[in-house]
Write a structure and sequence with these properties.
The chain is of the alpha+beta class and 323 residues long. The chain has helices at 3-12, 15-21, 69-77, 81-109, 113-121, 127-132, 143-149, 154-160, 223-231, 247-253, 271-285, 301-306, 311-319, and strands spanning 28-29, 35-37, 49-52, 57-60, 66-67, 136-138, 174-178, 183-187, 195-196, 216-220, 237-239, 259-263, 289-292. Strand 10, helix 9 (223-231) and strand 11 (237-239) form a beta-alpha-beta unit. Bound molecules: zinc ion. Zinc ion is lined by residues 39, 41-42, 48-49, 60, 62-63, 65.
Length: 323
């Protein structure tokens, strides 16, 4: 990449905007319009990460690392220089596009009976949770037309993975839930693979920014688990999209003192309990109070609530959870 093109890319992406999109929040204002906050590159307990928005540079007094937005992406996502450039280019283009797609999908949800019946069957009954999670429905057609009319070139839709190379909508008869920089699609047919994502990272913990202020956090595997736990009034819940956390998700759980209730599936093959045990050890090693919640055999949080489990019963499970 030519130096000029690099400068243009950097100008397009102010460091502070990028940091905020990754859930970084300034803790304190300093002279000269600069900000200080917790360092997102390691477990930080007192703000040591300095950001100068005018120069678009950062420096951490804790770990001694600093640089521009590209350097930050390299360190934060643990990628090389060229991969960092790719991530930044995607970041420029993908966020508004995903929002436009999810607007379309949310509008479609209420025009079809099938997805609403599916949500009902999975225990998602309150309009609040559908609104809170911005749940939509991909019927399987119409997205391409909607987005091209909104001015997005077809090539952009294909490279984002929303439209197939053959020109069709990629998500067909799926409940769609927006993630940080991706879209989760749950098939409502048994004939198709259950889960689908766009190419690229699934990102950090689900809606972490809304949860991190709680002293106690409930961690579940799936978004439908998340939905019923949230709906039952436990708003301190988050989701890791599987029982194996990526580096960033783990770091998020460790970004402050808290207790974490690992509420993984109690599946018969033991993979949920094993993952919870392993994660619990790693969290304790970081000073995080992890507790393993024991669901009745064969249950996940979704089936627990769908089959009549009550909030008070779930609360007792939390209270009897062991390290
Ligand atoms: Zn640092």
């Amino acid at each position: 990449m030519r130096p000029r093109a690099l400068d243009e890319l950097k100008q397009q992406i102010p460091l502070l905007d990028y940091l905020q999109s990754q859930e970084w929040r300034p803790a304190r204002a300093l002279r000269g319009g600069r900000w200080l906050g917790l360092c997102p590159l390691h477990t930080d307990h007192k703000p040591s990460f300095l950001v100068d928005p005018q120069k678009s540079l950062f420096y951490c007094y804790g770990c001694g690392r600093g640089g521009d937005v590209i350097r930050f992406v390299e360190l934060f996502h643990q990628v090389n220089f060229l991969q960092a450039l790719t991530l930044l280019r995607e970041w420029c283009g993908v966020t508004p596009l995903l929002n436009a797609a999810i607007d379309f999908y949310r509008f479609q949800l209420h025009r079809h009976n099938e997805p609403l019946a599916y949500l009902d069957q999975r225990g998602l009954r309150s309009p609040e949770v559908i609104e809170h999670m911005r749940i939509g429905y991909a019927a399987g057609s119409g997205l391409r037309g909607w987005l091209t009319q909104s001015g997005y070139p077809l090539a952009v839709l294909c490279s984002a993975g929303l439209i197939t190379k053959a020109g069709y909508d990629s998500y067909i008869r799926r409940i769609v839930i927006p993630l940080e920089n991706n879209l989760y699609g749950r098939s409502i047919r048994s004939s198709a693979p259950a889960h689908r994502f766009l190419p690229g990272s699934k990102g950090g913990l689900y809606l972490w920014e809304q949860v991190r202020r709680y002293a106690e956090v409930i961690l579940v595997e799936g978004l439908f688990d998340y939905a019923v736990v949230w709906q039952a009034g436990f708003h301190n819940v988050t989701c890791s999209l599987g029982n194996h956390l990526n580096a960033r998700q783990f770091q998020q759980l460790c970004d402050g003192p808290r207790a974490v209730y690992l509420t993984f599936d109690a599946d018969a093959n033991g993979s949920g309990p094993r993952a919870a045990q392993h994660l619990s050890r790693r969290l304790w090693a970081q000073g995080i109070k992890a507790r393993r919640v024991q669901l009745p055999d064969g249950h996940d949080p979704n089936s627990f609530f769908v089959q009549g489990g009550e909030a008070s019963q779930f609360q007792s499970l939390l209270e009897t959870a062991r390290p």
